[in-house]
Automatic annotation (TrEMBL):
It is found in: Cell membrane. Homopentamer. Pfam families: MscL. It is a multi-pass membrane protein. GO terms for cellular component: plasma membrane. This is Large-conductance mechanosensitive channel. Belongs to the MscL family. The chain crosses the membrane at residues 81-106. The keyword Ion transport applies. Keywords: Cell membrane, Ion channel, Ion transport, Membrane, Transmembrane, Transmembrane helix, Transport. GO terms for molecular function: mechanosensitive monoatomic ion channel activity. Channel that opens in response to stretch forces in the membrane lipid bilayer. May participate in the regulation of osmotic pressure changes within the cell.
Length: 145
């Protein structure tokens, strides 16, 4: 019974729920960034460089591989040693975009937090001091006699 109770307290705590929501949103956000990289950025970069698909960029380090083969076909050749750098370029661009977006989100959140801290606290009218209250009580007690 103690284990179940402890687990329930752990699982229902706000931090765990926030983490779960963050992981789910992060997974979806990663898919969005992948789509931005693969569907928007990479075609533009490929148009400038002239290579339509980075995933098939590679250099043959060892072996007899014909030029023009896809990366999968080149790797399938027995004895071939392939230095496949194209997919790394795609993943690197994806990482840089994701890091940029996360940086912008954190920067925006920090700016909002600073504005909350810098906002002056609402003016609370000053009430009577303790001495003034005691004097009023004393006067009321004198008047009752």
């Amino acid at each position: 019974m103690g284990f179940v109770k402890e687990f329930k307290e752990f699982a229902v705590k706000g931090n765990v729920m926030d983490l779960a929501v963050g992981v789910i949103i992060g997974g979806a956000f990663g898919k969005i960034i992948d789509s931005v990289v693969n569907d928007l950025i990479m075609p533009l970069v490929s148009a400038v460089i002239g290579t339509p698909d980075f995933s098939n960029l590679y250099v043959v380090l060892k072996g007899n591989v014909e030029s023009g083969l896809t990366l999968a076909d080149a790797k399938a050749i027995e004895g071939a040693v392939i230095f496949a750098y194209g997919n790394f370029i795609t993943v690197l661009i994806s990482f840089l975009l994701l890091a940029l977006v996360v940086f912008m989100l954190v920067k925006g959140m920090n700016k909002l937090k600073r504005q909350e801290v810098e906002a002056p606290a609402p003016e609370v009218p000053a009430g009577p001091t303790q001495e003034e209250l005691l004097a009023e009580i004393r006067d009321l007690l004198k008047n009752q006699k």
